[in-house]
Specification:
The protein has 157 residues and is of the alpha+beta class. It is built from three helices and six strands; from the N terminus they run E-E-H-E-E-E-E-H-H. The protein has a six-stranded antiparallel β-barrel. It is globular, with a radius of gyration of 15 Å. The two termini are 15 Å apart. Bound molecules: adenosine-5'-diphosphate and magnesium ion. Its EC number is 2.7.1.26.
């Protein structure tokens, strides 16, 4: 369920999330709309993934992504949230986020404390940075998907 669909290409608008305070933790996550989430393969595993992301026509950056259960829908629908490993000057709600998911890190976990959660995410970020420097992942940074408005918008193996 996790690797079978990779690499996975996806493009969609950034919407308001559930205000879980990701930004306050220093780890803002750009949420995709329900419609975009519904377009994901229904059997894709929840958990933490990594890949490349680009806002509008901006630069392509490393990212970590969580596919999780959406508390707003009583955990019957998924949510897809991208933390881009880059410091942005401003928020980008309403902009088009393009991503390619290239690898999987781990399943979802519950943490005993906020500190444990934050350090797990920091480890995920370090793991993503390392993996994305490997040729098989690095090559997707240059994919045509990223700087072409008419580029492919569906998953393409
Ligand atoms: P929400 O609950 O609305 O998703 P977050 O606290 O998760 O709020 O913050 C997400 C928002 O922060 C994104 O929609 C985006 O506009 C902004 N943002 C700023 N920097 C980043 C980044 N590096 N990665 C993801 N989102 C970012
Ligand atoms: Mg968020």
């Amino acid at each position: 369920g996790a690797m079978r669909h990779l690499p996975y290409f996806c493009r969609g608008e950034v919407v308001k999330g559930f205000g879980r305070g990701s930004k306050e933790l220093g780890i803002p996550t750009a949420n995709f709309s329900e419609q975009v989430v519904e377009s994901f393969p229904s059997d894709i595993s929840t958990g933490i993934y990594y890949g490349w992301a680009c806002v509008g026509n901006g630069d392509v950056h490393k990212m970590v992504l969580s596919i999780g259960w959406n508390p707003f829908y009583k955990n019957i629908k998924k949510s897809v949230e991208t933390h881009i490993i880059h410091t942005f000057k401003e928020d980008f709600y309403g902009e088009i986020l393009s991503i390619v998911i290239t690898g999987y890190i781990r399943p979802e976990k519950n943490f005993d404390s906020l500190d444990a959660l934050i350090s797990a995410i920091q480890e995920d970020i370090e793991e993503a940075k390392r993996q994305l420097d490997l040729p098989e992942h690095l090559k997707l940074k240059e994919d045509n998907f990223f700087h072409r408005p008419e580029g492919k918008t569906v998953n393409n193996h």
